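Lab meeting, item 3. Inverse folding demo.
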C-alpha cells in the first residue's frame, strides 16, 4: 500500500493505493458514504482492498474533501463536488504507472454510491458497484424538507452531522437516475432488506436506468450498514466476484 494524494480545486484529497504484485493492473476506486472515511464501516474498504489486490486488482480508497484526512470544509459538501472529485481521482489513478487506465472501475457506499453512479456516467468505467446507494439524498421531497430545516435552524441534521443550504441547492440540479444513464457497463447493486433508504422507488429507478445490465443482490436481515459479521462477509464476497469478473 502506498499513499497517493490528488489535487482538486486547491484541496488535497488524501488516499491509499493498494497495488498487486503484477502491474500495470486493472483498478477500482472506492467512494465512501456520507461523513465516512476511506476505511468505511468495519474497515470494509481496507478488507476489500487487500482481497482484491491479492487477486491482481489495484484499489484506491480516499477521503472526500471535508472528511477524513483530506482538505476542505464539511460545510461545503455537495453531491456535484463529490462527483467532480471522483472524476479527478479516476484520472490521477489512471496516470499511475502501476495501473492500466483502460481498466478502471468504481464502487460507492450510500452517498458514495450515488456519487459513483453519476461519475460513471461522465467517465467510462469497466464496472460499477453500488452498496446501498443513497439516491434519496437528492429526492425532491427530501430536499424540500431539508431546505425548511436549514431555514429554521441554519442546517439540517443527518447521522449527527450538519447539512447546509448548498447541499440542498445542488440537489435541485440532480436527477439520480436520468443523470446516471451515461454508464453503459455492468452494475451490481447490493442492499439489505431492512434498509429504509433503498426503497422500492429507488430500485425501480435504477432498473429503468440500467435495464438488464443491473444485477441486484439482497442481503437478508440487515439495514443500511450491513450490520452483522456474516452480512459484511457476504457483501465482500459478492463484490469481489463481480469486480474480478469485469476487471
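The presenter then showed the designed sequence:
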Amino acid at each position: 500500500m502506498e499513499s497517493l494524494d490528488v489535487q482538486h480545486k486547491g484541496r488535497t484529497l488524501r488516499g491509499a493505493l493498494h497495488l498487486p504484485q503484477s502491474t500495470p493492473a486493472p483498478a477500482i476506486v472506492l467512494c465512501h458514504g456520507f461523513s465516512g472515511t476511506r476505511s468505511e464501516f468495519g474497515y470494509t474498504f481496507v478488507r476489500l482492498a487487500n482481497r482484491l489486490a491479492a487477486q491482481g486488482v489495484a484499489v484506491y480508497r480516499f477521503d472526500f474533501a471535508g472528511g477524513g484526512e483530506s482538505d476542505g470544509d464539511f460545510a461545503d459538501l455537495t453531491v456535484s463536488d463529490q462527483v467532480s472529485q471522483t472524476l479527478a481521482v479516476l484520472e490521477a489513478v489512471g496516470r499511475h504507472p502501476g495501473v492500466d487506465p483502460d481498466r478502471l472501475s468504481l464502487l460507492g457506499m450510500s452517498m458514495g454510491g450515488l456519487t459513483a453512479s453519476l461519475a460513471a456516467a461522465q467517465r467510462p468505467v469497466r464496472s460499477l458497484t453500488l452498496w446501498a446507494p443513497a439516491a434519496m439524498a437528492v429526492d425532491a421531497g427530501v430536499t424540500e424538507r431539508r431546505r425548511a430545516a436549514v431555514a429554521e435552524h441554519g442546517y439540517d441534521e443527518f447521522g449527527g452531522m450538519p447539512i447546509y443550504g448548498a447541499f440542498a441547492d445542488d440537489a435541485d440540479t440532480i436527477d439520480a437516475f436520468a443523470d446516471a444513464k451515461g454508464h453503459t457497463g455492468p452494475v451490481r447493486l447490493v442492499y439489505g432488506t431492512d434498509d429504509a433508504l433503498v426503497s422500492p422507488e429507488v430500485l425501480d429507478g435504477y432498473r429503468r436506468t440500467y435495464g438488464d445490465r443491473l444485477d441486484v443482490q439482497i442481503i437478508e436481515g440487515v439495514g443500511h450498514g450491513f450490520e452483522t459479521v456474516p452480512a459484511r462477509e457476504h457483501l465482500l464476497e459478492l463484490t469481489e466476484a463481480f469486480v474480478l469478473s469485469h476487471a
